[in-house]
Amino acid sequence: MAVVNIRRDVDDKFYRYRMPLLTTKIEGKGNGIKTVIPNMSDVARALSRPPTYTTKFFGCELGAQTTFDEKNDRYIVNGQHDANRLRELLDVFIDKFVLCKSCKNPETELIVQKLGRTEEIIRDCKACGERTDIDMRYRLTTFIVKNPPVKIKKGKNKNTGDAAGGVGGADSTVERGESPKQDGAESDDELTKKIKAEAAVLNTDTALAKEDWSADTSAEAVKQRTAKALEGNLAAMVINGGDDEGSDDDAHSPYAQLGKWIEENPDGDAKARSIAIYKKAEELGIEKKHKTITVLVQALFTADIIKEIGNYGALFVKMVNSEKHQKALLGGVERFFGFSHPDKIAEVPKVLMAFYQIDILDEEVVTQWGTHVSKKYVDKDTSKKVRKASEPFLKWLAEADDDDDDDDE
């Protein structure tokens, strides 16, 4: 499924707020022709709005009748309407009913409140804290007032993923012991066996972690330093983890610049390229920032990620040096599988194992991540799917820990 930025004016593939590309299907003919929107629920869920709101908005703007069949997940606009036209209208809906008027962040919640004898609709922004009003002249506001969003309380083992509630999201916790039911995926036992087998042969070479990465990157210099690094003659460079409260959503941010640079410079030996990437991050002043790790996972890896982790392991060994960096790494994994390679989500356990084997993921960090769904890096639905897929690795980790405890007795 194609995925686009919620703010389509933001030309940044590392923008963390994403949604499925709206699709349409024309049914019927003559006076009975209608436009069905097959993935309206998915789009609405990404926006944390009920699918009835977006569908009704299309009807209001196009002067067409709309039909909602929530039980069967069918949302229809009467007449024949081009997908691009509906996407343009969706941008208008997002601007008027989703984005915070102050910070332009989509993490808002609609609140209907009384104002004397009338009602008003407020966007409550969870990002900046501002409350901004909705222009009540839009026809959709009447529908919202009559069908206010339902505030669903979040709690353990309660499903809060119903987009019709108007607050979006997914389970705040994932039940342990459940197996991810992916189409074409292997069973837990089979996958766990494969993980254990592959763990023995994963490339754990971290020689480049002992190299002066900020030095000259000319071909000759790289060749000389690589040879020395392989002999283990250079001392390690210690990089302190830097806290970073800046935004990575701006297309002109150093994070977006680094991601774009990595994609535009795909060639070269993995070791030499790792040095060049580090030097570029250093040039942008983000070599110590945890958000840089998220960008690396998104920009550096391809569908052949398992092998590539071995090739670029030294780069991550050098740059991942705190719990915050590890969490950013896992956030990158969520985006990699959620946005770029959803068809390969069954490989999540192998990817986690590969990172674990090069000793940059702590057991406590990955276990805590695997049992707590979050919308920090992706929408909660995607977050839940990635964590669900990780369960064979978490199971293996728990069993390995139990074995160690038995050995100690």
TrEMBL record:
Keyword annotations of the record: GTP-binding, Initiation factor, Nucleotide-binding, Protein biosynthesis
Gene3D superfamilies: 1.25.40.180, 2.20.25.350, 3.30.30.170
Membrane spanning stretches: none
Keyword flag Iron-sulfur: no
Basic and acidic residues composition bias: residue spans: 173-190
Keyword Aminoacyl-tRNA synthetase: no
Domain of life: Eukaryota
InterPro entries for the chain: ARM-type_fold, IF2/IF5, Transl_init_fac_IF2/IF5_dom, Transl_init_fac_IF2/IF5_N, Transl_init_fac_IF2/IF5_Zn-bd, W2_domain
GO molecular function: eukaryotic initiation factor eIF2 binding; GDP-dissociation inhibitor activity; GTP binding; translation initiation factor activity
All copies of domain W2, residue ranges: 248-407
Location of the region described as Disordered in the Swiss-Prot/TrEMBL record: 154-190
Any one GO cellular component localisation term in the record: cytosol
GO BP terms: formation of cytoplasmic translation initiation complex
Family indicated by similarity: Belongs to the eIF-2-beta/eIF-5 family.
Name by which UniProt lists this protein: W2 domain-containing protein
Organism listed in the record: Hebeloma cylindrosporum
